[in-house]
Design brief:
Length: about 150
Amino acid sequence: MISKKTKYALNALVHLAKRRDEGPVLISQIAGTENIPQKFLEAILLDMRNAGFLRSKKGKGGGYYMHKDPEEINIADIMRLFDGPIALLPCVTHQYYEKCEECVDETTCGIRDVFAELRNETVKLLKASTLAEIIRRENKLKEARN
């Protein structure tokens, strides 16, 4: 399960991506619209700004806005930023690799092989799920409902 921090980050990013052409958006507006505690959101947005996903502008007309194109930001990037590794076992992660303490031989470990395959498919799906794809899906679901 993803953390609340990751879920809130995704909600905020989708909100900002939808308003990309409107200029900076106030934290209070994002928090209110997306039902995210404002203090928690402030820290999340700062982390995303520091990671290069967002930019901010101070003063009148200020707020947060997209720095990267919504096609360039995917769920895998956001999950890694806030939750760390995506894999279920430490021996199959690329960025956070750790050898399992009880493992005798990684190269012949059937458990590792299954979880590596699971990780690869999961990461492939998460990387394909960009902010733009999330918005396309949301629009398609709304159209189907009407």
